């Protein structure tokens, strides 16, 4: 997507020089990345929305050198989060919701402390409502290219979609949906909790689509090819697709993020309508979701 000349957000906390946090983030990076995909994209007990505490770990100071690619990705992330600020401020105004309190994007490496417990790169990008931060280890973008085979360069809409999806969880939090769903999830069994999780995830995909709609309308930054790459990305992070790839079969009751078809559908619906009132994932039946 075209982002030349666009502003970079100030709401970014760069913790990349603070060290990797825990021992496991060194040495086993390949395995961790695979585990990260499974956790982030396929679910498990920890999804990419953290509402619970996970194990604490320490921080270690270290000398950090950045590659040119990392710096480009950091700039790209600052530009994308800036765009989400402009667009969600606009949408909140349009719909009379009030001021938009933007989240902070935290860039880190390996592991970092969050109000939801210790964050690990292995979890993939995630949002913590406890501190209203979006956490991103930039190595995830390489994972998308290498392990998922998501097409697109280092400023692709597919990569922006990952950030916009996490911001989508922040919108859910601001509108009260996230807490309500987390309460219901804690009061039910795992299978039902997974169903709530899927609806939260598809809503975040929808909001990412709404963001892309406004990007296109306000900035003309999105080509047909960009859009196709983002839709392909949504397809490749569907629970059914990832489970079949990992284990040869899919277990629908364990889905936490939705199928490929569902993820594509809700992202596209957001993109096509640009209408936040269409975020109806909790009103749909299993059949129409
Ligand atoms: Zn999510």
How many domain modules? Answer: 1
Bound molecules: zinc ion
Mean pLDDT: 87
Largest sheet: 5 strands, mixed
Gap between N and C termini: 29 Å
Helix content: 40-55%
Helix-strand category:
alpha/beta
State the low-pLDDT regions, or none: 21-46, 52-60
Q: What coarse outline follows from CA principal-axis ratios? A: globular
Word description of this protein:
- Helix 5 packs antiparallel against helix 6 and helix 6 packs parallel to helix 9.
- The chain is globular and about 45 Å long.
- The relative contact order is 0.15.
- The chain has one domain.
- The protein is an alpha/beta fold and 289 residues long.
- The strands form two sheets. It has a five-stranded mixed beta sheet with strand order 1-3-7-6-2, covered by helices on one side. Strands 4-5 form a two-stranded antiparallel sheet.
- The chain contains nine helices and seven strands, in the order βαβαβββββααααααα.
- Bound molecules: zinc ion (ZN).
- Zinc ion binds at residues 48-49, 165, 169, 201, 204.
- Zinc ion is lined by residues 48-49, 165, 169, 201, 204.
